[in-house]
Design the sequence.
């Protein structure tokens, strides 16, 4: 019996990556996961425990060198690994550049050396657009507002450089606002879902930034994984696609669905009022479309709410302390000389 084809998923024990692993296994592939378990969780892969088709390597991606056996015979590489969050990137920009740019280069070189990779798909970030006009298409000007956004965009530039110079077949998917089960429970103050779910478990009010009318293009994680799988298996190469639901939802709508009280905290500099992906290109090119409605997705998350029981519990005071650098650094950014 022929051996199953291989996919390498970096960050595969993390939020989106673990759902990517599920999808690949269900489709009849072996999966090698590279995840240093800083953001990943073993529980995210527990459904594959004992499955010889899923191998977890807990190295940092920067420790992987060209010729690594983990990539031997790989058909596809889907690269999610890296570090996120705005505030830590402002405080520790070198770490972000190292992990998100040089880490990506290590993955590109490992894929190139394998010589079998049909597609390298990069998980890019819509933060590269900065305070964007909406709906935002792939030709929108690039204007990163903070080091995280810059590091993710420079990682994407490296991906296309390897395509241009070394002819590595690549595609890039710029994620807008992914949410869903298995999203991160630890680390810095960050995504609204993790913050709100822990607050709901504790019976505390939701800390709503500003007046809550800001809207985000939330896309459920299984739809995200399906888009990446389509981006891997398409014949198209050298493409960038924006990925969202194309249907932004307000934070106030999320509060209503989660059913709780709210307390308001100051609006933050460098954050857009609306994120809205123009998804016409990805729908046209890949035949992909979002399948899980916002209401269905929130219900799925609430059904798994115990997952966030050990997450940090944030309140207005702790958020103010955590975001102090954010306010100090970005408040006058618009007044800097161009």
Sequence:
């Amino acid at each position: 019996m022929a051996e199953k084809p291989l996919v390498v998923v970096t960050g595969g024990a993390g939020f989106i990556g673990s759902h990517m692993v599920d999808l690949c296994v269900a489709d009849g592939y072996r999966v090698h996961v590279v995840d240093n378990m800083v953001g990943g969780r073993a529980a995210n892969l527990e459904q594959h425990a004992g499955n010889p088709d899923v191998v977890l390597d807990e190295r940092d991606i920067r420790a992987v060198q060209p010729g690594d056996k983990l990539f031997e015979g790989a058909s596809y590489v889907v690269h999610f690994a890296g570090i996120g969050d705005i505030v830590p990137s402002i405080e520790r920009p070198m770490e972000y550049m190292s992990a998100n740019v040089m880490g990506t280069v290590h993955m590109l070189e490992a894929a190139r050396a394998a010589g079998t990779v049909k597609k390298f798909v990069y998980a890019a970030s819509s933060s590269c657009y900065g305070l964007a006009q909406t709906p935002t298409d792939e030709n929108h000007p690039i204007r990163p507002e903070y080091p995280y956004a810059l590091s993710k965009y420079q990682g994407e530039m490296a991906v296309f450089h390897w395509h241009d110079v070394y002819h590595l077949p690549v595609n890039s998917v710029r994620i807008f606002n992914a949410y869903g089960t298995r999203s991160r429970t630890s680390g810095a103050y960050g995504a609204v879902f993790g913050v709100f779910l822990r607050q709901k478990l504790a019976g505390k009010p939701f800390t709503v930034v500003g007046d809550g009318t800001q809207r985000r293009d939330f896309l459920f994680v299984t739809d995200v994984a399906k888009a990446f799988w389509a981006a891997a298996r398409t014949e198209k190469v050298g493409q960038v696609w924006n990925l969202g639901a194309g249907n932004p939802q307000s934070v106030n709508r999320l509060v209503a669905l989660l059913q709780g009280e709210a307390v308001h905290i100051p609006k933050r500099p460098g954050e857009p009022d609306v994120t809205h992906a123009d998804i016409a290109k990805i729908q046209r090119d890949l035949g992909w479309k979002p399948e899980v409605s916002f209401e269905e997705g929130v219900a799925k998350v609430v059904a798994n709410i115990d997952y966030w029981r050990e997450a940090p519990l944030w309140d207005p005071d702790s958020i103010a302390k955590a975001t102090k650098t954010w306010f100090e650094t970005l408040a006058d950014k618009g007044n800097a000389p161009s």
Summary: Confidence is low (pLDDT under 50) at residues 334-338.
